[in-house]
Amino acid sequence: NALTGANRPKIKMFTMSNSGDDTLNETQYNNIALDTNGNLYSWGHNDNGQLGRGFNDAGTGATVRTKACKVNFTFNGTPIYIVSEGSAQSSSFCITNTGKLYAWGHNDRGQLGIGSTNDTNVPTEVTAVPSDLKTAVDAGAKVVHVYALGGNTANRRSLVLTDAGKVYACGRNSSYGVYLGIHSSTADLNVTTFTEVTLLTTAMNATNEKAISLWTTGGDTPTHYVITDGGDTTNYRVFSWGNNSHGQLGRNVQTAVPSDATGLGVWAPAEILIQNYGDMEQMTANDTPVNEIANTMYHSDWTNKHKFGRPLAIASNRYHTTDACQVLLLDDLGQIYIAGDNGG
Hints:
Elements: E1 24-25, E2 30-34, E3 40-45, E4 64-70, E5 79-84, E6 91-96, E7 101-105, E8 120-125, H1 132-138, E9 143-149, E10 157-162, E11 167-172, E12 190-196, H2 198-205, E13 211-216, E14 223-228, E15 238-242, E16 270-271, E17 274-276, E18 293-295, E19 311-316, E20 326-331, E21 336-340
């Protein structure tokens, strides 16, 4: 996750030279690399222009570029962060040190956020396209993190975090908006510009909270998480929304309640819960644990019973719809919390 200011990791990546003319070979994926001078390099599959070099390689999917060549493009600022969805039909993104966002490649669901479903084979400034995100950037916000997901499916989506603490999403908005967190009365549509996840903003408004990091299980039916700064309370919190087929929302809610045209129901962004099974050694057969607690992280139920650290990171193993899904949350006291599938 990209962080701002002093908290930004000082990552140094390998430096590559322009390797000249490509050869063609068979593979399934595309790649981009960033060097310490802010230069981008790309290689691999290019049917949708995802190499960002200004051309497409026509073909059936077996036509690729095998040498890493420099992407000759002048960005607004210096590229500092890159991400590619990574499949054979990929979407790629770049953040610059000026907080601008660029995108190129596959765009069948509007996942590039450029206002259409047309592919583009050159980096296009997303933050210049009229949208909620552009409005925020024009007001001084900077993009600090972006991820793309969906794989080789029709479920491609992208989410963005700004240093103003808000999240924006675009791409396939299926199941009335469950996976983007943007409610729609239409069961399935393409959101082609980065639109504010206002349900999350509303959930945080009571204490002036800001999202400070953005995480996902990934895959074609994802669950998303944000860690907040706690706002006026200074208590860092975690919110979740999206798929809940294995309880990975971490909120003790049903996994099979459908969303519909009237609302997202339990899948709307809300704070996670933490469960402690209590003094299990005091149980007798079929009893509930003594002193069991299940509540939000900073609820008074936890007073003098458990100390929470600042949430740092969230990880998951999920990719495909049919995968089991485990989720881990790590805090700065070295404590790990788990949610999701517990088979085995």
